[in-house]
């Protein structure tokens, strides 16, 4: 097949590699002159590297290996935990994508850098992986009725008070702030959530940064991320969507690279939609239900939830969209409002 791919992000770059490796004629279009311009936390779980030909242990773009997390509430430590089995890496996403595209080119892909895609009739397949700003698939009839975005802010800083193996979060009833180690005393920091109040977001973020004496060394950038789960349909004729373009982001955590890389590996296959739904579709749908539950809690209920839940169960809900068991729910018998909200948002 002759395949056009819009966007050299995780989904598009990975698709270019695997489709070329299987002998397809691939043209990868990237409108920008560099990679990874969308602000991002740059954290990737180990599972994601099963889908790409390049590995963090052999790379220069892997900056930190993560196996711990600390969760804060109002600048006080609420929970610290081992993240196993969900260890992962902080990466330089730009360098990662550059190398992935180089691998695709080595397999025969053509890379049109700084070029917009112009539709031609001779492509057998057109994959829109251009991110949340891309409109091609939407204009061609892919249904976006359930597609929603939430805001995020990201920057880089320096701090001597963070560990190289630890993720730091502060939680709010609308989202969370993060500080991720970025190698050699640097960090990637930001905040994302479900509010349009920019001042609220920045004030919370700066307060969290102050806790770790983070010195800001970059401009503060804003972006959006899909927050409502994947589109109902990922294909329409010869048009397919993948990654952020398809809403492939865990709603409760904002994580998207893992799902985009997997989609990139399979999106040119005939049974793409079925494969993605089997692997991650239900998890992302559950993640939206858990997010709705999270947003329904007040600050005190949120604090109790994090303190009382088993850390692994919390991680499973946050990253895998796994609903806590009924047994876990017994911990909240003295908080009937929490149980009622869980039943309404998650289990019904």
Brief account:
The chain has about 350 residues and is of the alpha/beta class. The chain contains ten helices and 17 strands. The strands form three sheets. Strands 5, 6, 10, 11, 12, 13, 14 and 15 form an eight-stranded mixed β-sheet that branches.
Rounded to an integer, what's the Rg over CA atoms? 20 Å
| Largest sheet properties | 8 strands, mixed
Structural class: alpha/beta
CATH superfamily of the domain at 2-62 and 91-145 and 230-281: FAD/NAD(P)-binding domain
Please give the alpha-carbon distance between the first and last residues.
Answer: 44 Å
Number of strands: 17
Structure explained in plain terms:
The chain is of the alpha/beta class and 348 residues long. Among the domains are: 168 residues, FAD/NAD(P)-binding domain (3-Layer(bba) Sandwich); 60 residues, no CATH class. It is built from ten helices and 17 strands. The strands form three sheets. Strands 5, 6, 10, 11, 12, 13, 14 and 15 form an eight-stranded mixed sheet that branches. A six-stranded mixed sheet has the order 8-2-1-9-17-16, covered by helices on one side. It has a three-stranded antiparallel sheet with strand order 3-7-4. The chain starts with a strand and ends with a helix. The model has no long low-confidence stretch (mean pLDDT 91).
């Amino acid at each position: 097949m002759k395949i056009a791919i819009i966007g050299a992000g995780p989904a598009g770059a990975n698709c270019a590699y695997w489709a070329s490796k299987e002998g397809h004629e691939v043209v990868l279009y990237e409108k920008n002159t560099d990679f990874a311009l969308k602000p991002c936390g740059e954290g990737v779980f180990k599972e994601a590297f099963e889908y790409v030909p390049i590995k963090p242990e052999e790379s220069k773009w892997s900056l930190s290996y993560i196996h711990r997390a600390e969760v804060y509430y109002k600048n006080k430590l609420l929970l610290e935990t081992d993240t196993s089995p969900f260890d992962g890496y902080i990466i330089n996403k730009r360098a990662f994508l550059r190398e992935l595209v180089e691998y695709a080119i080595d397999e025969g892909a053509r890379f049109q850098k700084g070029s917009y895609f112009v539709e031609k009739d001779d492509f057998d397949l057109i994959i829109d992986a251009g991110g949340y700003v891309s409109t091609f698939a939407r204009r061609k009839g892919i249904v976006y009725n359930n597609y929603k975005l939430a805001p995020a802010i990201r920057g880089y800083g320096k701090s001597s008070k963070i560990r190289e193996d630890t993720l730091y979060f502060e939680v709010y009833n609308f989202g969370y702030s993060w500080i991720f180690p970025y190698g050699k005393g640097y960090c990637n920091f930001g905040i994302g959530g479900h509010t349009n109040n920019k001042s609220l977001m920045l004030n919370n973020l700066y307060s969290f940064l102050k806790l770790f004496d983070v010195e800001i060394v970059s401009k503060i950038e804003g972006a959006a991320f899909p927050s409502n789960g994947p589109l109902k349909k990922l294909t329409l004729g010869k048009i397919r969507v993948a990654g952020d373009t398809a809403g492939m982001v865990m709603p409760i955590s904002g994580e998207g690279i893992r799902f985009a890389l997997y989609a990139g590996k399979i999106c040119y296959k005939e049974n793409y939609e079925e494969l993605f739904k089997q692997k991650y579709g239900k998890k992302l749908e559950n993640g939206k239900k858990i997010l709705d539950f999270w947003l329904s809690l007040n600050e005190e209920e949120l604090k109790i939830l994090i303190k009382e839940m088993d850390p692994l169960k919390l991680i499973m809900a946050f990253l895998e969209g796994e609903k806590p068991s009924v047994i876990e729910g017994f911990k909240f018998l003295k908080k009937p409002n929490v149980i009622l909200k869980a039943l309404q948002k998650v289990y019904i």
